[in-house]
Amino acid sequence: MDLTTTYMGIKLRNPFVPSASPLSQRLDDLRRLEDAGAGAVVMFSIFEEQIHHDMEALDHLLSAGAESYAEARSYFPDIGEYQVGPTQYLDLIHQARQSLSIPVIGSLNGVSHEGWITYAKQIEEAGAHALELNVYYIATDPAKSGVEVEQLYLDVISAVTATVRIPVAVKIGPFFSSIPHMARQVEQAGARGLVMFNRFYQPDFDLDEMEVRSDLQLSTAWEMRLPLRWIAILFGRVNLSLAATTGVHSGLDAAKLILAGADVVQVCSALLRNGIGHLRTMIQELEAWMTSKDYDSVGQMRGAMSQRAVANPAAFERANYIRILEEYKAKYALG
Amino acid sequence: MDTKNTKRIAIMDGNEAAAHIAYKTNEVCAIYPITPSSPMGEWADEWAAEGRPNIWGSVPTVVELQSEGGASGAVHGALQTGALTTTFTASQGLLLMIPNMYKIAGELNSTVFHVSARTVATHALSIFGDHSDVMAVRQTGFALLCSGSVQEVMDLALIAQASTLESRVPFLHFFDGFRTSHEVQKIELVTDDVIRAMISDEWVLAHRRRALSPDRPILRGTAQNPDVFFQARERCNPYYQRCPAIVQKAMDRFAELTGRTYHLFDYFGAPDAERVIVLMGSGGETAHATVNALVARGEKVGVVRVRLYRPFSVDHFIAALPRTVRAIAVLDRTKEPGAAGEPLYEDVLTALGEQLVAGKLPFPMPKVVGGRYGLSSKEFTPAMVKAVFDELACPSPRNHFTVGIHDDVTHTSLEWDPSFMIEPDSVFRGMFFGLGADGTVGANKNSIKIIGEETDMYAQGYFVYDSKKAGSRTVSHLRFGPEPLPYPYLIEENSANFVACHQFVFLDQVDMLKFAKPGGVFLLNSSPWKPEEVWNQLPRPVQEQIIQKRLKFYAIDASRVALEAGMGSRVNTIMQTCFFAISGVLPREEAIGKIKAAIRKTYGRKGEEIVQKNFRAVDMTLDNLREIPVPAAPTTTRERPPTVPPEAPEFVHKVVATIMEGRGDELPVSAFPEDGTFPTATTQWEKRNISLFVPLWDPEECIQCGQCSLVCPHSCIRAKLVGPEQLAGAPEGFPSAEWRDKSKPGLRYVLGVAIEDCTGCALCVEACPKKSKTKVGHKAINMVEKQPIYEMGRRHWSFFLSLPDVDRSQLDLSSVRDLQFARPLFEFSGACTGCGETPYVRILTQLFGDRLLIANATGCSSIYGGNLPTTPYCTDAHGRGPTWSNSLFEDNAEFGYGFRLTIDQHAGWAVQLLQKLRPHLGDDLVDELIHAPQRTEAEIVAQRARVAELRRRLAGRMDPDSRHLEAVADHLVRRSVWVVGGDGWAYDIGYGGLDHVLASGRNVNALVLDTEVYSNTGGQASKATPRGAVAKFAAAGKPAIKKDLGMMAMCYGNIYVARIALGANPRQALQAFLEAEAYEGPSLIIAYCHCIAHGINMQKGLEQQKLAVQCGHWVLFRYNPALAAQGRNPLTIDSKPPSIPVKDYAYNETRYKMLALSRPKDAERLIQLAQADVEQRWKLYQRWMQEDMATVAHPAGQ
């Protein structure tokens, strides 16, 4: 059985790629991911904003109250260098690169133009095989148009791809008016891969404390429908490697996404919930299904059920929605 | 070896200089924090944590003990077993070492103790410098070697080390606390090569051979009897006889190696001097520089600087004096009341007298007088030196004089002429008035490094702080010049080339331009005004001084530039840039380049972003700095506002206000009480206005719960209940709301905010549980900009104070809601913004303040509780309030125990006298006075009425029994005795005493304000410091578990013990206070106090308290032996099982996080252990509770 796949020009032993998550925070876990069969690994995201905040906070809190009072000119010992900023992250990439045989993909969430470029370069220098840009922009300004928002993304991609030589993938959210158009622009800006989709931290309200809380809920299998659709639509329409993420919980989910056209499937929630060993199960599930359907390779499968490949392309479009709605109504005797 | 050509320049203070040598030449440092010596131990600890080796290649072991007594014991033990061992201390710390010093000397152990000499507390504590501590150990057998400057500290530290090893006499190497320990100077570093060349390995090996070893067993520390002790004690004499020559030999060797020459007694001055001053320490630098100036004028004067004070070599001393000497003034930086003279004076007299009697004095006996100077870092200036020389020129110079003060009581003081100055024109003098929080001192230290390291110029910095922890004012004194700067005194009036005011408001508070030299430069942070409009905002005296002194006046709206550059409130980099741009100390372009290089050096390791932010600030500064045209005449009539309002008491006007204005030096001796007594309730007169943001109450939203006033660290939020008619005269807009308690209809609830005293911590807003229904970000109390509401806020507060307090006897003080109406008798302290300790202290005064005696251990709570100029404990409408005293750090429990002994004794004596006088006083009154219960407020009020009646009946009776009863009658009203202090006291230095007092069964209550670190001295680890937290002396993270003081106390069975956290469970905290006080035996309350030394956003302090409890780090409980006596389980656990990981609490705090950022692996290991600690402790507490302690507990105490 040939599970190999190619992602942004990099050959992987199989399409399962653990996505940016806490599982890539320690070298031991990275090794376990490799042992469990991962085709590549995306490192957890380095957040420029967080780095700035951490630096500011450390500077402020270490010096708060210092040089104010004769008996206490400071409140902390001077213990030398702090690994603030990306140092720890870059060290980890470096170590991962040394100890793993699978490709290591850095992940970056920037804020400033300068930040994107600087950190992208540092990640490349640390030895990452590729870079995933985790662009995360919530439009709150009514005066800013969709085109302007898209341009923000494209500026970042152009700047980073002009800076680094390693291939760059872009992880986007689903909230664009025209995802195919956006995908084409991403491609034109120099990216080699598109990762669909980012799961934003969504706010929640605490009704006891009357406070806004935000926490990350793990995905459900149902959520893979969204990337499934858009990968199926984009397959063959753009010259980008396509990575599916969100809701990939089993080997069968992976099979669906590959059939839709994904080059790789990124997994996170399933591993957080079931442990790293679950990755092995997922690979076995995919293999079992492929055997049952007589597939020899992942290459054969890829895009076999993309929008272009299925007999009924409309299934992915509005007609699909109407049909489902009608079926639903009939089933539950609504309206 | 030629080491003279390998000179290395360094910028450092005296503490670092001493630590440098001590660390390089020792293997064990046993330390304990005490100001001003703590930084020596901190340096050693940091270097050891870094793995830095000594000159033999091993990394010294640095350990913290529980007290200086303990440290000296450990030193003694390490010496006896052959390790090269040192310690650092001062003041009371040194006194605690005395018993061991006798032992160490008696056994001829080679060691050097480095001491930053500090005042020993007498009528008051002082952290500043004089020789009262070292003079208290001059009899121990230690050699005493004194340094007078930072360079000398480094040099003589090494000479001491070499001398002790060769002579076997232990050395105490000392220098003036603060003046030398904290003065930053450009010095030549003593290199490792020089150190090696000074210290013979043979001496070290000999030290090892003398060690205790079971392989060649010996015995030391015998007990000897009258037959032999005396002879054996005299056996050491040859070592002391040889010692001075050994020291001089070491000095000579050092001179060969470095070119810096020292003698046991260094004489400087005219070879034919007739008048000579003898002194030691930094005053010697001043005297030396003054002598040089006077000799240049042709005066025949000189100075003998004493280096080796013990063993006192009479021969060397006499040899040092010029043969022409006619009059000698011996200056002692200490006071020995009742002595024939101060110690150095007596030694000099003895030396001269001995030689005279023996016929060996090589000149006629001169006149010799003694004088005191410089107590507690009192300034000692060239003018004072000259005054002493002038006095010596009199036919009968005054003896036992003082210089530096105005003594109008016993008239000891010499007058001096402040206009006498000696510094050459080439010396640049700059003074910088800043806020602690604005980074002024740090920036100035940076400037010294830039100029000192990057140019050939010499640099000196000394920094003066006020005693407040929030909004403190700092004054930096900087000197630069082409020659060394032997000027260890503050910059004097009319002499500063450059005066910088970093906060506009200071212009209304201090007269800083009196220091400016005519033609000098004045730099002002004009915020909130633009430079263009600032002239007209200056008070008239400031305008006048600028005009009269023809100052060049520059201004920058630095706070705005800081904000725009992302620097927040830190104007340091901006003002530093201005200084370099206009002072002319360095060429402008060069200076800016150097500032940027320094910024990278200072902030680089905290992240690139911080560096860039500072660079931005530098660039923006140059665009925003303006020279302000100075008109020919003042343009305003605005005077400085009065320091205190006219209604303040006379003492406040005369004494307190003068200190507040920075003119305390001008107060004469007669201004002060003779025994250290000071009035309470003076913070109310010091309106500091340090916060730009203050809380504003929204009566419409308020649910009147009292949480805001409960948590306010500065007692700035208060509540009252009044009838509507009492609001008739209220100022416009005075807010009030209908009291929500339906049982008392018609009352108005008012919440007062002391906006001038608020420090802006916003804990009140955090604590407020009420959110607006339509806008959840708006609460019932919200921070607003102060300026727009300033006048209104003052009027409202003033009216609020005029309203009557709620009758205490009507309050349920166990409820947070009612507690807000109990008047705080502790207000507006100088504690940090957002302090976690002070709310507990305030609650103590709200609950028991009118019958409260506080014994306060030295530490934060004694500083914000009792540091001049103003003190926060105050009185109620009847004039009653807490009475407070601080004895020491280590003895506080015993001190408070003494209070209780008196009270019990006098109450018993009163009862005895009542019985005796029963026929005159009446049975009813006597029986009631003796037997009436005093459990409730109402019962206490009733007892007070009985005592008043007793006094009426005793009035006019002149028999001794009546007079005695009258004197002690007040003790018939229940007293509340509390010993208050921090964890350093309770867990470490005072633990033995606390344990003893708790075990005594007496009704003494202990309140431990547990910040888990020595907060007052700058964050050193205590046994309360939790595992994994970084603290000074635990720079690699505290490896050991936090001591469970509560559980240790519970083991007695008859001690009331509670662990509380106001932010987590205020009601439990109140219950604990009330139960502890009600319990007729010893009590211990351990209170979680968030602290600036935790490295948290102080506004989130209460939240951290909650998390501490939720993660199980801080288990809330009450252990009440009174319940056991009733057959019930005495232990109640008031918190829930741990529900979050320790990490979720700990990593909000820099003390934990900094380890994760610097040593991630160690941090991970320690935090896992900390997690295990929490789980284990919880299980243990559960087991205690489940096993029903009532069955195993001892019977309740008396």
How many domain regions of chain B? 7
CATH topology of the largest domain in chain B: Rossmann fold
Please, what is the CATH homologous superfamily of chain A?
Answer: Aldolase class I
What is the CATH class name of chain A?
Alpha Beta
Characterise this structure.
The complex is a heterodimer of chains A (about 325) and B (about 1200). Chain A is of the alpha/beta class and about 325 residues long. Chain A has a single domain (about 5-305), classed as TIM Barrel (Alpha-Beta Barrel). Helix content of chain A is about 40%, strand content about 15%. Chain A is built from 12 helices and 12 strands. Chain A has helices at about 25-35, 50-65, 85-100, 115-125, 145-165, 180-190, 225-235, 250-260, 270-275, 280-290, 300, 320-330, and strands spanning about 5, 10, 15-20, 40-45, 105-110, 130-135, 170, 195, 205, 210-215, 240-245, 265. In chain A, helix 4 (about 115-125) runs parallel beside helix 5 (about 145-165), helix 7 runs parallel beside helix 8 and helix 8 packs across helix 10. The model of chain A has no long low-confidence stretch (mean pLDDT about 90). A 9-stranded mixed β-sheet of chain B has the order 1-8-18-19-17-20-21-22-23, with helices on both faces. The model of chain B is unreliable at about 1-5 and about 1190-1198 (pLDDT under 50). Chain B folds into 7 domains: about 5-215 and about 225-255, Rossmann fold (3-Layer(aba) Sandwich), CATH 3.40.50.970; about 265-415, Rossmann fold (3-Layer(aba) Sandwich), CATH 3.40.50.920; about 430-580 and about 590-625, Pyruvate-ferredoxin Oxidoreductase, domain 3 (3-Layer(aba) Sandwich), CATH 3.40.920; about 640-665 and about 680-685, no CATH class; about 690-825, Alpha-Beta Plaits; about 910-970, no CATH class; about 1010-1190, Rossmann fold, CATH 3.40.50.970. In chain B, helix 29 (about 860-865) links the parallel strand 29 and strand 30. Chain B is about 40% helix and about 15% strand. Chain B is globular. Chain B is α/β, with parallel strands linked by helices. The chains are: A alpha/beta (about 325), B alpha/beta (about 1200). Chains A and B meet through helix 2 of A and helix 2, helix 16, strand 18, helix 22 and helix 42 of B.
